[in-house]
Amino acid sequence: MAGTTLLDVKGVETYYGNIRALNGVNVTVNQGEIVALIGANGAGKSTLMMTIFGAPRARAGTITFAGNDITQMPTHEIARLRIAQSPEGRRIFPRMTVMENLQMGASLDNLQHYAEDVEKVFSLFPRLKERIGQRGGTLSGGEQQMLSIGRALMARPKLLLLDEPSLGLAPLIVKQIFDAIRELNKSQGLTVFLVEQNAFGALKLATRGYVMVNGNVTMSGTGKELLANPEVRAAYLEGGHH
Amino acid sequence: MAATVSSGRDAVATPIQRAFREAFYAGAISLGLFVLFIGLRTDQNITNELILVQRWLLLAIVVIAVTVGRFLYVAYAVPAMERSKAEKAATPAVVAEPGFIKQNFNRIGLVILLLYPIAMVLLFGFQGSLKWVDNFGIQILIYVMLAWGLNIVVGLAGLLDLGYVAFYAVGAYAYALLGTHFGLSFWILLPAAGCMAAFWGVMLGFPVLRLRGDYLAIVTLAFGEIIRLVLINWREVTNGSAGISGIPKVSFFGLISFNVSDPNYIAKVLHIAQSGAYYKIFLYYLALGLCLLTAFVTIRLRRLPVGRAWEALREDEIACRSLGINTTTTKLTAFATGAMFGGFAGSFFAARQGFVSPESFVFLESAIILAIVVLGGMGSLGGIAVAALVMIGGTEILRELDFLKAVFGPDFTPELYRMLLFGMAMVIVMLWKPRGFVGSREPTAFLKERRAVSASFTKEGHG
């Protein structure tokens, strides 16, 4: 299971102005894993995700992806190393159709594998195929999330970053999306780094997990370990989650 | 407006009764408003004393116009609108097959544009056609070209540019200076002017890459003014406010000239009578050709990765970057491409006028071009062409409305009211079609069949 290290975040500090959002975070993601990062609102989960993408830039520490130091790289060049992202708030292109959104995802390849990849996305999310000519902005929340993931997959990523894919979605849709992530990981060996508030679902899905509190990673372990951990249970699981 | 008409109290009154009352109120209000604005005017007499001029007739005309207008609106227009609304609600929503005109809109428009000068010559003769081909045809086509160029920057890439006229000026002066000093032909200078404008587009693009929305608008506005002020003050090169005259005419690829003194003057070559109209008609087709080039390039670009990237950039810059799109080069290409078409239009303008001065490149021009893009529907070529036709054609038509002098007195000059017309058109379009004449967007990607996207894509209001 434990392959080579794909993404290595070492001692990363990120600031918004003078406010420190990340205090020396260490996270590694190995080839073929699903890694979940859980934590409360404002813990710095999304900041870490954006820092990996170079916006905002880390003020200290290094980020390495597949042997390349990406700490100082511009965002679009990081993306060209085949890290794809379904960002917070999905950020699909609302006035472009589903089809055009997917095309945008394939811009890196200049649409070389477009026809093949689009079919893969549609078999993963059949709902998108029904909506193909519809504008992104008119889709439901779940469909937009599917589109956002689908668009990220069009780039044939080595690493997929997902920022709160379950945000604001009905439990049934959340399950569909988590199933799709598991399926991608199993059948295509896609490495996934997942930020979630839905700790239970995320840890069940994940190979390994990290817990983040106030810009620090406080705990790590396999998904099962964290699920069984009394502190994690008290803070994130018991309190209404499923 | 309709809301004020149908208040609950009036439910029992018939439309005619209501109309009488509303018309009376409207008349009274306009009388109260205009009695001092229009009825009385201060003037100076020969001995420099301030006197009051009374204009009761004019006041009466305005008040009667308001009263009658209100009566007609309430008595007939409102019930008709409500009836059609009710009918629309009653009939189930069937997506009607678009009619013949709608389906072939582009083709019909093109045929009309191609036949237009010929029709004008047949109707008014060579001399009479001058005004229609030049003042209407060429003038409108220049604005269509400019608006389509700006559409790339504003409509597709979503970068609000208030200084577009700067590129128009660069193109015009590039042609004027190189043409007068070096005697180079239009066909060499047209691409040169385009390149020059594109270069300045990139020069403007660099410092403003980080800006968006309102901030970008302000900086581009400043850029437009800088170019104009340089043109005024750099007298050694640009001849300042006096401008450059004697700009060479365009020739038909050097084969046929439009200068009477040349041995290959068109009338001598074709053995026909001398007339200034040939040149205008030639320029008309030239402008049409340049417009078609702009449209063709825009349509092609939209289907290429760079065009898609522009549209995606307009929607969400962060998402673009995380998909591996270099937003810097994408923005710069949008600026450069838009500016290039501005440069083409500018060099054509210089060739047509034979004279350029900084006065032609004031901020108002930028505002008009932007207004045409917004009114037409950002991103829609057809809508923008219609908007240019209405706005530029409409203001030109105002010059023809001499009969209004009979109504409003001999001092009335309709062309002074062109900005009023612009404002009114703006308000009306934004009330009824907030996304412009053509608000719906043709998608560029299809799986199997071509399906229209009902919802619209153009921006609504926000910056």
TrEMBL record, chain A:
Q: Which residues form the ABC transporter domain?
A: 7-239
InterPro entries, per the entry: AAA+_ATPase (IPR003593), ABC_branched_ATPase_LivF/BraG (IPR030660), ABC_transporter-like_ATP-bd (IPR003439), ABC_transporter-like_CS (IPR017871), BCAA_Transport_ATP-bd_LivF (IPR052156), P-loop_NTPase (IPR027417)
The protein's matches in Pfam families, at most eight in alphabetical order, are given as: ABC_tran (PF00005)
Q: Which SMART domains match?
A: AAA
Q: Which UniProt keywords apply?
A: Amino-acid transport, ATP-binding, Nucleotide-binding, Transport
Gene3D superfamilies named in the record = P-loop containing nucleotide triphosphate hydrolases
Indicate what this protein is called per its UniProt record: ABC transporter ATP-binding protein
Specify the species: Mesorhizobium hawassense
Automatic annotation (TrEMBL), chain B:
Q: Where is the High-affinity branched-chain amino acid transport system permease LivHM N-terminal domain?
A: 19-111
Q: Does the keyword S-adenosyl-L-methionine apply?
A: no
Output the Pfam families linked to this UniProt entry. BPD_transp_2 (PF02653), DUF3382 (PF11862)
Q: Does the keyword Membrane apply?
A: yes
Task: State the GO CC annotations.
Answer: plasma membrane
| Record-linked InterPro entries | ABC_transp_permease, LivHM_N, LivM-like
What coarse category fits the chief subcellular location reported for this protein?
membrane
From the Swiss-Prot or TrEMBL record, state where the protein is found: Cell membrane
Question: Which PANTHER family does the UniProt record give?
Answer: HIGH-AFFINITY BRANCHED-CHAIN AMINO ACID TRANSPORT SYSTEM PERMEASE (PTHR30482), HIGH-AFFINITY BRANCHED-CHAIN AMINO ACID TRANSPORT SYSTEM PERMEASE PROTEIN LIVM (PTHR30482:SF20)
Q: Which NCBIfam families match?
A: PRK11301.1 (NF008450)
Q: Provide the protein name.
A: Branched-chain amino acid ABC transporter permease
* Lineage, uppermost ranks: Bacteria, Pseudomonadati, Pseudomonadota, Alphaproteobacteria, Hyphomicrobiales
